[in-house]
Amino acid sequence: MSPAKSHPLIRQDWIDVGEGHQLFLAQYGDPQGIPVLYLHGGPGAGCNPQELRLFIDRGFHIYLLDQRAAGRSKPCGEVANNDFPSLVKDIERVRHWAGIDAWCLLGGSFGATLGYLYSCIYPERVLSQIYWGMFIPSAEGMEWLYGRGGAAQIFSSQYRQFAAGHGGTLDSLFSHFTDGFNHRDAEVRRNCVMRWLSWELALAVPGFELSEALAEQGGALARVELHYARNDYFGGYQLMKRVGGDLTCPTIILQGELDWVCPQRLVDEFLDNHGPRLLRSRLVKGGYHTLADNKMCRAVAEAVTQMGRYLAAGRS
């Protein structure tokens, strides 16, 4: 049975959160089921109904939220009034709008970072949460992802194509892409978007070839990602360090053994220094960064199933 048939659409809405942004929210599954908010990565990637495949069992009320400027949220690709603290506040606005007292969180990559931070700031609003490929927006995390001394040492030829001679510093690299994304020549803009997205795909799904169609759809994603990276994720790491120990709900963090975007080492170093005392990430042997990898998708789906059954038993 397809994910859509197992978890039928309940309704779709655009929620006005002010500052010129409207968020697209799609609800699936059982209106009386366990509420679960899915947080996509990027920032700027948007949700896909295919992600419903993570829910093997029924009995969930699933909220797929496109964050500011992502997916079908409006305006797509907009960077004005788009920052880390605003995304955290948006989650709470959506919870109020939906009339939910507390919900579960589920997300990967930047979505894991966002959800983790929300759960520390609003611990009473989170029942349980599962994350994978969690991104740590520290200077080391950014250097690993975009600099010459991290993943570039493993994927050297791909990095040369990505940086195109501008990888001396992160500032020079980000300035180069800012100029390229805003260039008056459409071909220059397209080339820069292709290079940005190709680098991320090389790390997330090695061997995957970026198509022209995906590059066309990914322009907004690349712009929003660059906006966050160039602004040091708007103090997100400093905030995570300050509140990371305040987490109280059951939490699972899954990191792929072959995750070249967000290495497990960086996650566990953060948790060792700033997280709850007993929380550590779990290694998915042979797993990559995204749900496109069957091992990671299966590991997340199994964790979601266990979470749902545990919470359902507590309800009965």
Automatic annotation (TrEMBL):
Residues 35-277 form the AB hydrolase-1 domain. It holds the Pfam family Abhydrolase_1. GO terms for molecular function: aminopeptidase activity. The active site is at 109 (nucleophile), 259, 289 (proton donor). Keywords: Aminopeptidase, Cytoplasm, Hydrolase, Protease. It is found in: Cytoplasm. Its EC number is 3.4.11.5. It comes from the Bacteria. InterPro entries: AB_hydrolase_1 (IPR000073), AB_hydrolase_fold (IPR029058), Peptidase_S33 (IPR002410), Pro_iminopeptidase (IPR005944). GO terms for biological process: proteolysis. It catalyses: Release of N-terminal proline from a peptide. It is an enzyme of class 3 (hydrolase). The keyword Protease applies. This is Proline iminopeptidase. It comes from Shewanella loihica (strain ATCC BAA-1088 / PV-4).
